[in-house]
Design a protein that fits this description.
By secondary structure, this protein is α/β, with parallel strands linked by helices. The chain has two domains: 6-168 and 279-391, FAD/NAD(P)-binding domain, CATH 3.50.50.60; 171-274, FAD/NAD(P)-binding domain (3-Layer(bba) Sandwich). 26% of the residues lie in helices and 22% in strands. The protein has nine helices and 22 strands. It has helices at residues 14-25, 101-114, 208-217, 325-340, 349-366, 382-391, 398-414, 418-421, 424-434; strands at residues 6-10, 29-34, 121-123, 125-134, 139-146, 151-156, 158-161, 168-169, 183-186, 200-204, 223-228, 236-237, 244-248, 250-253, 258-261, 266-268, 271-274, 278-279, 285-286, 292-294, 297-299, 314-316. The strands form six sheets. It has a six-stranded mixed sheet with strand order 9-17-10-11-13-12, with helices on one face. The radius of gyration is 22 Å and the shape is globular. The two termini are 43 Å apart. The structure holds flavin-adenine dinucleotide (FAD). Flavin-adenine dinucleotide binds next to helix 1, strand 2, strand 4 and helix 4. Keywords: FAD, Flavoprotein, Monooxygenase, NADP, Oxidoreductase.
């Protein structure tokens, strides 16, 4: 007989909602703790920025979302939905294939309503402590605090962590960073470009946020200089922008305000924007050192989800990078729900620990840094397909995989306006007719 457990889910973003739905489907008793007042997590645009724009002050008031006002999705909507609940265009919505962020929020709100998840959520409840109190009976204490700071402790049989991974800024490190007299911020606190009017701005990074911010700041700034890591990077003017250059990474930032790049070029900058990613952060987790975050490696975690010695009672959904977030989140959520109900078995603790160690050994041998532990690029869709087989699900549509890899290359095909220039529907037809 399937087990029905009391399960706490932390967070009501994409991962928390997916986890809640799968746990509910499996017959578990689900309570979702959400510190905000609405579902959506990252997709709830928040005008507020943090008091410390670099996010270094541990006592700053945290703003969860990292969205900028103009953000449009960076993957076609066709691969942002759930297997049985696609992210379709609605009559009164944003009809674009790469819609604005408001459309994703509406999608998640509808998802929560349509699957009866809203009633499972305790809004305004921030989880401040998760701790195993009885190993034999696998009892976890979950302490949550309301916005009025009232605190409650409750016991659960399992906890699923879905608190997101895009809130705690990771900064570029270079000599002089902390004494440079100009203005610095992390993209987590970037909302709109106005404050950079007529300024000379350095944007660090080469991923979606960096290129979006750069393009948005350039028309009003005096100059924009992008700093990018990598031996192949050469100083060049950026196409389609009149006042933007790409440089190799920053060598140092001087107290006279000058920023020196590793190729010797120098700019007299007013501002530096770090579009350099985020750190995993679980301030509520008391695991007696069983789970650590070391250089952005959360470990040990079997297949990015289960810490061997605490599994299956503690799990993490949504930690992986370099994949289609919603697809991976949904598969991980199904896995957790079915393992908790006893329908699926995990390998033994020793086998899971061995698998984690093998991954670490492989990374060491290949020279991969720890912060790549949860990045799936190298293995393509192997992880997703492995989960699909384990869960005995219908194979994933092949075109989704192709679409994901094509979206990675898209910028070089369609210049900077790839979101509008790529005819995604025609592309799907072509792929389907070639099969
Ligand atoms: P979140 O959406 O961050 O949700 C976490 C939730 O947990 C939040 O609601 C938060 O309030 C809550 N929470 C946190 N701590 C606590 C606590 N202690 N107690 C209670 N509640 C807590 N993905 C795409 O598929 N397409 C895109 O185009 C795309 N664009 C992106 C652009 C940016 C700038 C960023 C940063 C990410 C983007 N992503 C995109 C990735 C996106 O983060 C994931 O798709 C997905 O939204 C992550 O969901 P999540 O539930 O893991 O985290």
């Amino acid at each position: 007989m399937a087990l029905s457990l009391q399960v706490a889910v932390i967070g009501a973003g994409t991962a928390g909602l997916a986890a809640a739905r799968e746990l509910k489907r499996e017959g578990h008793q689900v309570t979702v703790f959400e510190k905000g007042n609405k579902v959506g997590g990252l997709w709830l645009y928040d005008l507020r920025v943090e008091t410390d724009p670099l996010g270094l002050d541990p006592n700053r008031e945290i703003v969860h979302s990292s969205l900028y006002r103009s953000l449009r999705v960076n993957l076609p909507r066709h691969i942002m939905g759930f297997t049985d609940y696609p992210f379709v265009k609605k009559a009164d919505g944003d009809p674009r294939n790469f819609p604005g962020h408001e459309e994703v929020l509406r999608f998640l709100e509808d998802f929560a309503v349509d699957f009866g998840l809203v009633e499972l959520i305790r809004f305004g409840h921030e989880v401040v402590r998760v701790e195993l109190i009885d190993e034999l009976r696998h009892e976890w204490i979950v302490e949550s605090r309301t916005q009025g700071k009232e605190s409650t402790e409750e016991i659960f049989e399992a906890v699923v962590v879905c608190n997101g991974k895009h809130t705690e800024p990771k900064l570029a490190d270079f000599p002089g960073r902390d004494t440079w007299p100009g203005f610095q911020m992390h993209s987590h606190n970037y909302r709109t470009p106005e404050q950079f009017k007529n300024k000379i701005v350095v944007v660090i990074g080469n991923k979606s946020s960096a290129s979006d911010v750069l393009k948005e700041v350039s028309p009003i700034a005096k100059e924009v200089h992008q700093a990018v890591r990598g031996p192949e990077i050469q100083l060049k003017r950026l196409e389609n922008l009149n006042n933007a250059w790409q440089h190799i990474m920053i060598e140092c930032a001087r107290e006279d305000g000058k920023v020196v790049f590793q190729d010797g070029s120098i700019v007299d900058a007013d501002a530096i924007i770090h579009c350099t990613g985020y750190k995993y952060h679980f301030p509520f987790l008391r695991s007696n050192g069983v789970i650590t975050v070391d250089n952005n490696r959360v470990g040990p975690l079997y297949k990015d989800v289960f810490p061997p010695s605490l599994s299956p009672w503690l799990s993490f959904v949504g930690l992986t990078n370099g994949a289609v977030p919603t697809i991976v989140i949904e598969l991980q959520a199904i896995w957790v729900a079915k393992v908790l109900s006893g329908k699926l078995k995990l390998p033994s603790q020793q086998e899971m620990a061995k698998s984690v160690q093998e991954l670490y050994n492989h990374m060491d041998k290949s020279g991969l840094p720890k912060d790549q532990t949860h990045t799936l690029q190298q293995t393509k869709f192997d992880y997703e397909n492995w989960l699909v087989a384990l869960l005995d699900l219908r194979p994933l549509d092949k075109w989704k995989e192709k679409m994901f890899y094509f979206s990675k290359k898209i910028k070089s095909y369609y210049s900077d306006n790839y979101r509008d220039e790529w005819d995604v529907d025609k592309w799907i037809q072509e792929i389907e007719s070639s099969n």
